[in-house]
Amino acid sequence: MQTHFTGKTWVFGDNIDTDQITPGKYLAFIDAPTLGKYVLEGARADFPKLVKPGDIIVAGRNFGCGSSREHAPLAIKGAGVSVVIAESYARIFFRNAFNVGLPILVCEGIHDAVKEGDELDVNLTTGKVTNKTTGKTLQAEALTDKAIELLEIGGLVPLTRKKLEERKAAGKA
Question: Given phi > 0 = left and psi -120 to 50 = alpha, else beta, which region is 47?
Fold first, then answer.
């Protein structure tokens, strides 16, 4: 899995909830590509048509608050967003992002340091976030080796499958 990204930013404010990320009328869908067609429609109606693979979402505090649906990070991943960087996350969204293999970083001060359309260079393993447009660098909380492993394999379900297969191959299942 890639741990270094460069992309154009989309900036959102505080308290972007899961209903804004994936409005309830789309919860019948469970696959990332379909959900990605409607991502953040509740926060910005034109966003699903404008976001491009490799783009980066920057947000303020409490990103992903609201209900515990995995649809929200899955929709972001399905839209091709490479990484989400926010000041803070709702705890359940934070966990669900890793469960579905969506890279996210916590970075104090990111919301005020980035304007929409800025180009960021992001390193998940060091936490270094450089705004290539302004030249300013911020330090996010770097991801642990375990978090990187979970993202590399695509999330919790693929990791569990791998571990079960390994146990079975070793005669322990």
Answer: alpha
Q: Are strands 119-123 and 4-11 parallel, antiparallel or unpaired?
A: antiparallel
Distance CA 94, CA 91 (A): 5
Residues 88-112: tens digit of each pLDDT: 999 999 999 999 999 999 999 999 9
- Going along the chain from its start, the domains and CATH numbers come out as 4-169 (3.20.19.10)
Q: Compute CA distances 46 → 21, 38, 51, 61, whole Å.
A: 13, 9, 9, 22
Q: Which is nearest to 68 in space by CA: 90, 37, 85? A: 90
In this predicted model, what pLDDT tens digit does every residue of 108-157 receive, in sequence order? 999 999 999 999 999 999 999 999 999 999 999 999 999 999 999 999 99
SS3 132: coil
DSSP-derived secondary structure for 52-111: -TT-EEEE-SSBTBSS--THHHHHHHHTT--EEEES-B-HHHHHHHHHHT--EEE-TTHH
pTM given for the model: 0.94
